[in-house]
Amino acid sequence: MTTWLVTGGAGYIGAHVVRALQGAGLTPVVLDDLSSGFAGFVPEGVAFVQGSILDGDLVEETLRAHDVTGVIHVAGYKYAGVSVKRPLHTYEQNVTGTAVLLERMQAVGVSRLVFSSSAAVYGTPDTLLVTEDTPKAPESPYGESKLIGEWLLRDQAVAAGLASTALRYFNVVGSGSPDLYDASAHNLFPLIFRALGEGRTPTIFGDDYDTPDGTCVRDYIHVSDLALAHVAAARRLEAGEPVLPAYNLGSGDGVSVREIMDAVASVTGIDFTPEVAPRRPGDPARIVALGELAARDLGWEMRHTLEEMVQSAWEAYPKG
């Protein structure tokens, strides 16, 4: 029996990864400090260790006690905008934390890692379609910390034979279970839902971009599809099959902010016309990633329509 430690496994994305591992017949173990996760997101019967990846002794003890054979590293401080104001905290959580995790993995002989990276490593790319080879130009401490994390994996492959891959993605939405929801104060779907719940009108920042409807176009992927890609990467590492250093998990076409607003109105039955505010500085008109390499190696695909993404997110989002 193979056991995979999921760091951050009590968070929105991590909890979906845990359930996907269970569905694939693998044994998950969760390590989470609950700074943004919830103990209730961890399924009954799954081993849960509350603590930080910065606690090296706890990490090593967890790896040993549960005979962990691989790690899916989802834990991290993920707020790009806020990271500009909290750079030291961001680097501590994402860079130092990853270094401690890798150090303790090496100490106990665990040599497989799936790293939850980010499309923030690309910054604002010149190209409309982002590939894995698009130049890396992160524009926030968060994006920089994820890129450094990828460098750490690369260097540990040389130094200690680490087998790993990094998954880069943009906006994760939806829910795979009514009891798992996105609690972020910064992500678009929760922001819209929160505004509607408080009787406020959601806002679109800029409707004069060079896009079909004038609003920004972005990649939105369903969290369950993302979780399946993590499991596929873990299985590939487990089997000793070759993987690329990094994969984009992208839609290839993207969705506009106005399309999302329209879908929310349709799904919720709340009739509203979004307010339009001026553009925010630095918002590119369109950023969409290609997922062809992930489709080839990890079975990556977009299995959910926009309406299904909104419907599942709305059903799971706490009301009242």
From TrEMBL:
Pfam families: Epimerase
Gene Ontology MF: a single term: UDP-glucose 4-epimerase activity
Cofactors demanded by this protein: NAD(+)
Enzyme Commission code: 5.1.3.2
Catalysis: reaction(s): UDP-alpha-D-glucose = UDP-alpha-D-galactose
Pathway: Carbohydrate metabolism; galactose metabolism
Annotated family: Belongs to the NAD(P)-dependent epimerase/dehydratase family.
PANTHER family xrefs: UDP-ARABINOSE 4-EPIMERASE 1, UDP-GLUCOSE 4-EPIMERASE
Protein name: UDP-glucose 4-epimerase
Biological source species: Herbiconiux gentiana
